[in-house]
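Much of our argument rests on the idea that a fold can be written as discrete symbols. In the encoding step, the backbone of a single protein was reduced to a row of integers, each denoting a local shape. This step matters because it turns folding into a mapping between discrete strings. For completeness, the protein is quoted in full, as a sequence line and a line of structure tokens:
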Amino acid sequence: MYKILVVDDEKMIRELIKRYAKFEGHEVVEACDGMEAVEKCHKETYDLIIMDVMMPELDGFSACSEIRKTSDTPVIMLSARGEEYDRIHGFEIGVDDYVVKPFSPKELMMRVQAIMKRRESKEKSNNNKDIVKFDGLVVDFDARQVSIDGKNIDMTPKEYELFFYMVKNRGLALSRESLISNVWGYDYYGDDRTLDTHIKLLRKSLGEYASRIVTLRGVGYRFEEE
């Protein structure tokens, strides 16, 4: 079904993920550290990468940053730590999902399926070709670009998806549930902290326009037009 690169310095973890992935019909390629993962990604393409954070030679965050220079392959990061700092750092460099060890291999496979379904759905759908302007903030849906005063803003893929959804529904109160289901998918298996983390990252990216994302206590968020 999908070609998955599994990166972990623990052979038992790689074997566990490989067993469940192959049972689901996926092809699995293994790498024992971040350096090997980067080298493999330079030589061939993968549909998805499952990568540990703490590894010798090159850690998962650094490896993901290197891979992101040439590829937008979805990445699920594995870590024994669940601190917000690690989650934020992972999302900042383009990680698609974050799973804390110990984890359920079955749930991990469900997350793989959810990520790939969203990716395939978005590839089939047509982009909105409108360009929306809010003073110096310009949102180009077709080019998938956001700029402030003529300077392009660098966002992670998930930040783009979240921001575009909020801008398309500007002025409307968007519940946390609707944001999660429409941006991450109805079958998302994460938690609400993922949404809050991405809102923080989005506000940071928007700089002086961060205040346009309004928090609605007990409800969710709204993007203000003015």
